[in-house]
Amino acid sequence: MTTISLCMIVRNEENHIGKCLESVCDIVDEIIIIDTGSKDRTKDIARNYTNQVVDFQWIDDFSAARNFSFAHATKDYILWLDADDVLLEEDRNKLKKLKSELQDTIDSVTMVYYYAFDDHHNVTTSFRRNRLVKRARKFKWIGAVHEYLAVDGTIINADLAVTHTRVHSHSTRNLSIFEKRLENNEVFTPRDMYYYANELNDHQFNEKAAVYYEKYLSLQQVWKEDAISACDKLCDVYIRLGDNTKALYYAFKSFDYDSPRPELCCKIGYFFLADSQYQQAAFWYERALKIKCVNENWGFTNQACSTWLPHLQLCICYYHLGDYEKSYEHNEAAAQYRPEDVHVLHNRDLLQGILKNREKAVSV
User: pLDDT at residue 359 above 80?
Assistant: First the structure.
């Protein structure tokens, strides 16, 4: 049977690391914890699961730390996780099955990453990552921040998800690393430029974020998924800046890189809905629902934009168009994902009242 080394880099993760390791410790054959400077109980908790807890001096370089962790692995394959990741029971069973069946001709296995959730526990952001790699191939991490694992060869997409558990907050850590690199006159790769723009966007430095997203899109060689995402984020930036013309321009510009995505269709629908153009808005929200989201998508996907959100907006559109039956149908479709949403409950009461009154009028 295939053997697996779990490699992790951690710092001040006492609130998460135990749950992470508990979810996977009986499946992997070796656990390597690289600590980059914890001041809490992270290392003590990790030692309950492994004696391989190694210190690493932090040098503002995530790839250096991850490559250091990989260098300590001794098993056939390397699985990497962050301390706030877990495998849920269904995915634990899938990993066990994968481990028993994995052929040594496979160089990398990708898994879906459930990165963010709404307040009704629906996945809102997901994407794929190379998650389990053959140690003998000596794959390397690249990039000081927002690092990626450069792999090639035979890659398979597993029907298996890693679940992120942290409540997100925008730390200045990554932004500071980028700023230091700029001060040192380091040349940014296209990927660096895109992720630097993301950090600026997250911290509401709107004008500067717009500059770097547009610089990125002006490059000749860009990854289409990041380009689409840049258009999506530029749309948001210009909405905040009060320039809806530019915002709508970038929503449509995303079509230059690939077929329409649900996220951008919902953005376009938003503009028409805000302008009380309900038929046009309905067209774009209907389009968002018709686009099938698949787990093979490597880019960031907001699953709300292909599930409950278009239905809820279509409820509004058809209400204003006077089609109360359709409005009710879409509201109930949204309720399948958000049964306790106050907007859904309000819409239901309103529309049921309208439809009952109409039935009474017809019967009279």
Answer: no
